[in-house]
Each structure stands twice: as structure tokens, then as C-alpha cells.
Design a protein that fits this description.
Layout: E1 2-10, H1 19-33, E2 38-42, E3 51-55, E4 58-62, E5 71-80, H2 84-93, E6 102-107
Antiparallel strand pairs: 1-5, 1-6, 2-5, 3-4
């Protein structure tokens, strides 16, 4: 089974950290990137995104976020595992989870 682990960062979560603490967080992300069966993708900051809505049958494109959340989608991982507990264990290792963000774990639909 494949799982998506959506990483939501809290705005300015790294600001209170020292340079050494930031390096430790970076090193944790590097360690995750080296795990077999786990592929990560970072996203550009939310202010670089475009949001599309259909209103009254017309396309409305804005640079406003899709919602007013204090957290933003910062990236995602795709994980190949048959163990849902392993997906949660890996999610718990993602630094954003303890830095005011959240990790949303969701199984992918298999179309085979």
C-alpha cells in the first residue's frame, strides 16, 4: 500500500530556533530522505502559489491561499509500506509535527 504524508508547517516555526537547532532539523529531514521506500517533495512557499476556483462557471485565479489556516502545505512524502503503524511512526519523525505543524497521513487508492 502507498501512503501520502502531507507536511503542514506553522508559519515562522523556525524563527525562534538557534542556528544549531535549525541545522539539527535540517539533518532530520535529510535522514528521512535517505529512508528506503520514502520519497519526499518540498513545495515552494505558499505566497508563490496560485489558487483556482470555479465561480458561476467562470475560472477565478488568485494568489490568495485556499484557506485561512495558520499552517500551510509545505511538502509531502510518498511511502510504500504494508504497515499503517510504520506510516505513523515515520510521520512522528517529521520535524514539522513538533514545530507547530501537523502531518496528515492518508492511504492512496490503488487502481489495479
Amino acid at each position: 500500500m502507498r501512503y501520502a504524508l502531507f507536511v503542514y508547517d506553522a508559519a515562522n516555526a523556525l524563527d525562534p530556533l538557534t542556528t544549531e537547532q535549525r541545522q539539527m532539523v535540517y539533518d532530520e529531514y535529510v535522514a528521512l530522505a535517505e529512508m528506503p521506500g520514502l520519497v519526499g517533495h518540498r513545495l515552494q512557499p505558499p505566497d508563490t502559489a496560485t489558487t483556482l476556483r470555479i465561480t458561476d462557471g467562470r475560472r477565478v485565479v488568485t494568489t490568495q491561499p485556499a484557506d485561512g489556516a495558520k499552517q500551510h502545505l509545505a511538502g509531502f512524502y510518498l511511502l510504500d509500506t504494508d504497515n499503517a503503524d510504520q506510516a505513523l511512526e515515520i510521520a512522528a519523525r517529521i520535524p514539522a509535527a513538533r514545530l507547530g505543524g501537523a502531518i496528515h497521513v492518508q492511504a492512496l487508492v490503488t487502481e489495479r
